[in-house]
Amino acid sequence: MNALAGWISENSGLLLRLSLLHLGLVAMSVFLAAAVAVPLAVALTRPRWQRYARNVLDVVNVLQTVPGLALIGFASALWAWLGEGIGWWPALTALVAYALLPLFSNALTGIGQVPSAVRRSAEALGLAERQIWWQVELPLSWPALLAGLRTAVVFNVGTAALAAAIGADCLGTLIFQGIATGNTTLLLAGALPTALMALLLELLFALLQKRLFPRRMAAR
Fold first, then answer.
1. pTM as predicted
2. What pLDDT, in 10s, does the model give residues 30-68?
3. What angle do CA 22, 23, 26 make, to 5 degrees?
4. At the fourth CATH level, which superfamily is domain 19-212?
């Protein structure tokens, strides 16, 4: 542990930079996944498209079952065809795909559980489709959406470390370098902050859910 503390003291700038890059990769991938998953879930709860919801969910489930490293490899191969086989873009693509399932499934469940009577009442009041979504469905489905966001963020903190395998700078860079050189200090310098980041974000979301929805959390 003394060696690890000494390494961190000497390389605090590098560790901070890799931690911020790691966190940025997670934040950007989850944001992009949410930008795809939530509107898609909204569309698939509408009567016109509802029959396709199961098929889309099956496709997203398949993406989630693919191991993280394999998914990153597929994304790298795809971007290699476009001339960008390594770095942030293929890593970001893989992480977006990996975050889709918890975001999409929770959004689909949350919006689908909004009582039809509430929606009909909103329509009777003359609210437009967009107003119904923003003023009625979103507030009622927010607990499920936040739970999906929590799962996606924590999943992607761990998966993002694998992005170092294709040259994306993150905490995984230290982990892979430590494995390649047999340097336990270097390996721990990447693994411990990754684990700590996941735990802190999990705690942050748990506290946020407890503060925003105290009755729901107490019921659990």
1. 0.86
2. 999 999 999 898 888 887 888 888 888 888 888 778 888
3. 90
4. MetI-like (1.10.3720.10)
